[in-house]
Amino acid sequence: MKRVLNFGSINVDHVYTVEHFVRPGETLSCQEYRRFAGGKGLNQSIALAQAGACVYHAGKVGAADTWLKTLMEDKGVDTQFVETINGPSGHAIIQVNTAGENSIVIVGGANHLMSGSDVQRIVANFGADDYLLIQNEVNAVPQIIRSAKVKGLTIVFNPAPMSSQVLNYPLGLVDILVVNETEARSLAGEIEPKAIYESLSHRYPNMAVVLTMGHKGAAYFSSQAQFCQPAEKVHVVDSTGAGDTFIGFFLAELIKTNDPKAALACASHAAAICVTRHGAAESIPSRRELEAQQPI
Asked: How far apart are CA 10 and CA 132, in angstroms?
């Protein structure tokens, strides 16, 4: 069975419901406060497991927040490569406005303590039939990508949160790049989907690109195929975990079917369910929920 190794962040999300995002110099009362499990890595691992994939999470969490590790295990994620440390976990401060949009500040904490020896030890357990999934909320991303490529893993990279350092990462080793419009613009210097892919494929000819566009849907580009998937019309409550849900279900379905078009449709449907709920990890649907609504 193909496995996914997800080197990813594990966060505590502090979510504040506000009328509008706080402006410079403004003090704003929140309408509601909630605490959730989060981190792009944790969310994507849970989404993968919920979608039926065999996923191993690699990361670190503070001793005060081992409930996050337990949550992943309860959702079907293998956490044998998650280390508990005597320090603070990563966390996020999230504003959610009345339109369901979010604004997020990330604190790295334990997510930035992955050593080179950690990387080598963990990657050694995987091989050419497996996938690496990685985001940009952990340290040592270039080393993780290089180490996984040496072992023959298929590399899936989601450069979120986007930073200028990403431009110096070994992107030529990435097999599938998953980006939203803002991240794509930073990497490609283009706005239109086709122009984005043409710019990226010129530099990285072996890379497939998955572009998420919110209410405009999603697109897939590779040297073999190019197609779009419209977004479903739903009432958006909280978009916090939508991108992570999309990525988890896309990769799980791609592994299952080897059909990127089916994977895009499955991921879009899962993300549409996610945005109708509050929270990040808690809002991720199960594969059974998707199948109850439509065959996938």
From this structure: 17
Residues found in the chain:
296
What is the pairing mode between strands 218-221 and 54-62? unpaired
Per-residue pLDDT of the chain (296 residues; tens, 9 = 90+): 899 999 999 999 898 999 999 999 999 999 999 888 989 999 999 999 999 999 999 999 999 999 999 999 999 999 999 999 999 999 989 899 998 888 989 899 999 999 999 999 999 999 999 999 999 999 999 999 999 999 999 999 999 999 999 999 999 999 999 999 999 999 999 999 999 999 999 999 999 999 999 889 999 999 999 999 999 999 988 887 899 999 999 999 999 999 999 999 999 999 999 999 887 788 899 998 988 876 44
Rounded to 5 degrees, φ, ψ at 158 are -115, 100
Say what the alpha-carbon torsion angle 236, 159, 270, 76 is, to the nearest 10 degrees. Answer: -120
Place domain 3-11+39-90+115-293 in its CATH homologous superfamily: Ribokinase (3.40.1190.20)
pTM score of the predicted model: 0.91
Active site residue 74: no
Nearest to 39 by CA among 82, 15, 3, 10: 10
> Of residues 13, 118, 238, 244, which has the active-site annotation?
244
The C-alpha atoms of residue 51 and residue 61 are separated, in whole angstroms, by 24
